[in-house]
Amino acid sequence: MKLGILQCGHAPDPVAQIHGDFPLMFKRLFDRPDFSYEAWDVEHMDFPKGPEDADAWLLTGSRHGAYEDHPFIKPLEALIRDIHASGRRMTGICFGHQIIATALGGTVEKFKGGWAVGRQAYDIAPLGPIHLNAWHQDQVTTLPEGAEVLGGNAFCENAALVYGDSILTIQPHPELSNPIIADYISSRMGNPAYPLALMERAQEENTLPTDDKRFADLMVDFLTRGREAL
Fold first, then answer.
1. How far is CA 186 from CA 145, 180, 193, in A?
2. Glutamine amidotransferase domain: from which residue to which, for each copy (predicted)?
3. What band does 135 get if pLDDT is binned at 50, 70 and 90?
4. How high is the pLDDT of residue 31?
5. Domains defined along the chain, listed by start
6. Would you tell me how many other CB atoms lie within 10 Å of the CB of residue 32?
């Protein structure tokens, strides 16, 4: 299977220098020799010709908001709708989760409850209770037509969404392993945008295990088999 990666943003330089950028993180996470990959830097207006350029698609995280006015947002939303109409399967992480929702008629907002940083607990069917690293303030607050909630928690109710047989999205970051999130925290510690107590707690909990691989396997199963994987 050829997986097209729509790169909606980039890892911070201190993180990318050690761990690589988002496409490499996902290649390591999936670890599938039967997959091939091609990435397009859509944040900088590098777009594929259309849905037919890959068998399935993945949208990465980004520092941008899905509701913000950037040159790449509208073309990306149009491509998402084209991929959906084509029947090709698609998955989105964090910003990818959000921009798919907005492209298909949902709403994303800056959450008044603040940030989720580091290890978070979720209840996600069919996996049950799992832990994944997160880094977000924005959330999907109104579901698009046809979207179903696959899981979440009290802080983020719409953390995982499924759309029929073709789309699976997730708010946290299965690609951000504990070593990667540790470097995220280090690179942003002291930034006034992030409450110090929240950052310190995320740092302390960084030694606890996460379920990155379990959710990655679910993503791969969905991209290859669709709804029956759930």
1. 39, 10, 14
2. 77-177
3. very high
4. 95
5. 2-114+135-174+211-229 (3.40.50.880)
6. 16
